[in-house]
Specification:
4 strands, elongated, Vanadium-containing Chloroperoxidase, domain 2, 14 helices, 2 domains, two-stranded antiparallel ribbon, mainly alpha
Length: 443
């Protein structure tokens, strides 16, 4: 339920004279109405906060790669639902691979772009997130209704109704497009290759491979159809004098001498533990995205553009990363160390069920964080992803510093070799820069 204080906040939010955009009959130019790009973005933040609250309770937690994909489509759909109200904005259909043309708002009608975004988000969340309970859907409907009621009080029922219809048409088009992307997390039929240094299932669960067919999923960028990571700069070897052995030894020595702070860092970025303990990916990433935008007092135009680019990163980062993982099929440190250094060594955390190189966490999050750096600057950031359970936030002098901690956390956890993390950061930042270079709004 939304209390009186929240309703008052919503009233102030939208009724400062924003988001009404008229399409006049017989002209292709928008009238001289307030540009939606300068509106406040609280509606968008409230939607992402609601979904975070719903998913925090899920047990089991949502599948990481599926959740990233779903939020990716949400970000693109949000942008397209508001784009006609952003002067000079360019559509994504001409920029993303096989993206269909988006619905166009009817001429001769007034539109309330907040209502369009509201309807698109409500529709996309309900269509894409298939594990929502009946109670979850009621909360989604309640938030949508609360915003629509306030918008109607200012703009009138007709304008809100047609804006809702437009937003839903965008959401339907996006959802239908998503259903054809060949997203497949099954490992059925996959046979692990065997060669010196090849990845094998890891303790303690020895779980089946995850993401081995993700490379075949349709990306958002055509350049991601074949993108991969460069090979490690040294060959596999079990010789104690080799570079590979020394990389494994660095993980081994680190794991034996971890400080309490290093253990905390590893667990902070693991986001594991189930409902009430961990957080469902990409909640952690999205909470940072929202915090950065809020700290910069980002307008609606900046926010929907950022979520679109974040969405592209969340779709293509995993595809590119997992294509490379199963291309190189590199052995994990726990296996190498147990075979060649110390058969009793145990990693701090349970190793994820896929090959070592490149880094999953960095490959997925670094493109997103680099988009933030490019859009808002390499600014100080507060990570309060675990504030809901009473944990103190972590402070960083810059987004880049936070990225470095994300990277080294996987060495502390016992998941990755140091060189893997260095190269994964470079690859992730490169993808983030490519996405940031997309021209969507006039600067």
């Amino acid at each position: 339920m939304i209390n009186r204080q929240t309703v008052t906040h919503l009233f102030v939010l939208f009724f400062a004279g924003l988001l009404v955009f008229g399409c006049k009959q017989g002209t292709t130019e928008p009238p001289q109405a307030p540009d939606a790009s300068q509106a406040k973005a609280d509606l968008v933040f409230d939607w992402y906060k609601l979904m975070a609250k719903l998913e925090l309770r899920n047990n089991p937690q949502p599948v990481i790669l599926a959740n990233n994909r779903n939020y990716a489509y949400v970000g693109v759909g949000l942008y397209e639902a508001v784009r006609p109200g952003l002067r000079g904005a360019e559509g994504l259909s001409s920029k993303l691979y096989q993206m269909p043309a988006m619905p166009a708002p009817a001429q001769g009608q007034d539109f309330v772009w907040g209502a369009s975004a509201n309807a698109a988000l409500a529709s996309l969340f309900k269509q894409l997130f298939v594990n929502l309970s009946a109670a979850d859907k009621v909360r989604i409907d309640s938030l949508e209704t609360a915003y629509n009621d306030k918008l109607t009080a200012v703009a009138g029922r007709a304008a809100v109704d047609q804006s809702q219809a437009f937003g839903r048409s965008v959401a339907t088009t996006i959802y239908n497009w998503s259903s054809t992307d060949n997203f497949n997390l099954s490992s059925q039929g996959y046979v692990l290759p065997v060669f010196p240094g090849s990845w094998v299932l890891t303790p303690p669960a020895f779980a089946a491979p995850v993401g081995c067919y993700l490379k075949d999923s349709r990306p958002f960028l055509a350049s991601s159809l074949t993108a991969t990571a460069p090979p490690l700069p040294f060959p596999y070897s079990e010789n104690p004098s080799s570079a590979f052995y020394q990389e494994a030894m660095a993980v081994y020595q680190s794991g034996r001498t971890l400080t309490s702070d290093q253990r905390d860092i590893a667990r902070w970025w693991a986001d594991a533990g189930g409902a009430g303990v961990g957080v469902p990916a990409p909640y952690h990433t999205l909470s940072i995205v929202a915090q950065v935008m809020a700290s910069k007092q980002a307008t609606l135009g900046q926010v929907v553009e950022a979520y679109a680019k974040v969405g592209i990163a969340m779709k293509d980062g995993p595809i590119n990363t997992f294509r490379a993982k199963y291309q190189y099929n590199l052995i994990r440190p726990v296996t190498y160390i147990n075979r060649n250094i110390d058969p009793t060594w145990v990693a701090l955390l349970a190793t994820p069920p896929y090959p070592e190189y490149p880094s999953g966490l960095v490959g997925i999050t670094a493109p997103v964080m680099q988009v933030l750096v490019r859009e808002f600057g390499d600014i100080p950031v507060t990570d309060n992803a675990y504030g809901w359970r009473g944990s103190a936030p972590r402070q960083y002098a810059s987004i880049s510093q936070m990225m470095e901690e994300q990277s080294i956390s996987r060495i502390y956890a016992g998941f990755h070799y140091p060189s893997t993390q260095t190269i994964s950061l470079q690859v992730g930042r490169s993808l983030g820069n490519t996405i940031a270079d997309l021209k969507l709004l006039p600067k």
